[in-house]
């Protein structure tokens, strides 16, 4: 079969998209706390045949910069953060095929809790659920959960490995065909096909039996986005849809090849790992119109957006530091947040001791810099290049504002991709695994 792209809509259940300036856009909806807001997004993405609507999430608002939340609230920098699972269920009610993914942390939940939530969501959406596995990096999240600071980086991943074993173990304890619901024989289920897990490890104990049968797709799809060395090992072991980064084609190709090789080394089929990279497209009927749209976006950004999100991502308060002073080796090594982002900035800046301004420039947090701007042909040409060069298998599409950012992509880019045979004309099935080309998981395969 001809290789085709996967499209993921990047969402947040908050007052803005992943770009904090988005709520300031003159055409942006202002009812981000309403069900109708997310149902419109769902309908737009399903009309564009997107495989997945995915919700990023954190358990705290960005308040690391200056150690205060005032700037966050006043400027609307991701200050509203709702639970994404109920929001996804509202989106599920407005769609039939769109996959629905939500972020939940292995650091602040229990495995049985996660297993039950997502297995239930999978049944309620008839096999369209996905779980984005994160380990949580911010001290603000830790303090909201009764702790003083975030767990050490590698320890978080060691714990997350066992967390995955417990969740997948519970999902495997109901065999297919366990449910009978036979009124004549008065047998509800076959007890021989329902098992206890009885897990006991260094981080978790979980007995079972699990309380949710397997869904139409077996169990939810696993999404992962770890970018540090340890995070990429984790993604290779467990992830089915991987969110990666690519600052240029050479870096992206090397990252893609490395992730596929790590997956093979982990004993998994690399064809069943879909690697997607983030893109922001600013597209219109003509390039000139798209450039006008981009010019408007650039007027909406504030420096405080960038500083706040960078402090949150790195888990460092640098409010009193000179932006142009090189960071010391101790400061670089002491970054406890997104270590993959740290390593990217060091690499792309060419400096072993980049300044905070270098971090702002190369991380692009909070800014529309790096957007693909143009008419349908120009934008599609760029996406095709990245796809054909094996930088990725698909894209995590960000929106400059709601609903226009997605609506423009669906109106202008999707038809051009379909015309070139790069994107499917319609959904292949009803479950997310069918639409991603993933097999229905057999029980216990992850243990091999």
UniProtKB/TrEMBL annotation:
FMN binds at residues 57, 103, 153, 157, 228. Residues 23-390 form the Luciferase-like domain. The keyword tRNA processing does not apply. It comes from the Bacteria. Pfam families: Bac_luciferase. GO terms for molecular function: monooxygenase activity; oxidoreductase activity, acting on paired donors, with incorporation or reduction of molecular oxygen. Keywords: Flavoprotein, FMN, Monooxygenase, Oxidoreductase. Belongs to the NtaA/SnaA/DszA monooxygenase family. This is Monooxygenase. It comes from Entotheonella factor.
């Amino acid at each position: 079969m001809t290789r085709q792209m996967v499209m993921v809509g990047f969402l947040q259940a908050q007052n803005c998209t992943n770009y904090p300036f988005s709520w300031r856009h003159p055409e942006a909806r202002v009812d981000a706390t309403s069900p109708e807001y997310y149902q419109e997004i769902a309908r737009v993405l399903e009309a564009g045949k997107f495989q997945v609507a995915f919700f990023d999430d954190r358990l705290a608002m960005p308040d690391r910069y200056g150690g205060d939340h005032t700037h966050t609230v006043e400027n609307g920098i991701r200050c509203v953060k709702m639970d994404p699972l109920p929001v996804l269920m509202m989106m599920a009610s407005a769609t039939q095929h769109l996959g629905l993914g939500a972020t939940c942390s292995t650091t602040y939940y229990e495995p049985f809790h996660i297993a039950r939530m997502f297995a239930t969501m999978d049944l309620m959406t008839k096999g369209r659920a996905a779980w984005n596995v994160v380990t949580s990096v911010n001290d603000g999240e830790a303090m909201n959960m009764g702790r003083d600071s975030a767990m050490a980086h590698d320890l978080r991943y060691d714990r997350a490995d066992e967390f995955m074993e417990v969740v997948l173990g519970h999902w495997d304890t109901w065999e297919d065909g366990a449910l009978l619901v036979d009124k004549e024989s008065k047998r509800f289920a076959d007890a021989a096909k329902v098992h206890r897990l009885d897990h006991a490890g260094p981080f978790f104990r979980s007995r079972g039996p699990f309380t949710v049968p397997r869904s139409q797709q077996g169990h939810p799809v696993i999404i992962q986005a770890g970018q540090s060395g340890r995070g990429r090992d984790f993604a290779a072991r467990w992830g089915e849809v991987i969110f990666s980064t690519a600052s240029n084609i050479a870096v992206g190709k090397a990252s893609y090849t490395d992730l596929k090789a790590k997956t093979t080394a982990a004993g998994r089929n690399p064809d069943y790992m879909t690697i997607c990279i983030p893109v922001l497209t600013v597209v219109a009927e003509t390039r000139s119109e798209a450039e006008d749209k981009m010019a408007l976006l650039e007027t909406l950004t504030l420096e405080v957006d960038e500083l706040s999100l960078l402090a949150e991502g790195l888990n460092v308060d640098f409010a009193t530091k000179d932006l142009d002073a090189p960071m010391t080796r101790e400061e670089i090594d002491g970054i406890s947040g997104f270590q993959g982002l740290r390593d990217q900035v060091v690499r792309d800046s060419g400096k072993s001791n980049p300044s905070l301004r270098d971090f702002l420039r190369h991380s692009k947090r909070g800014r529309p810099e790096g957007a693909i701007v143009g008419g349908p042909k120009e934008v599609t040409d760029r996406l095709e290049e990245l796809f054909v060069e094996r930088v990725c298998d698909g894209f995590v599409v960000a929106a400059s504002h709601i609903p226009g950012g997605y609506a423009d992509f669906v109106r202008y880019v999707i038809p051009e991709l379909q015309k070139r045979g790069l994107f499917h004309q319609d959904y292949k099935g009803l479950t997310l695994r069918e639409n991603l080309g993933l097999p229905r998981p057999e029980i216990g395969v992850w243990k091999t």
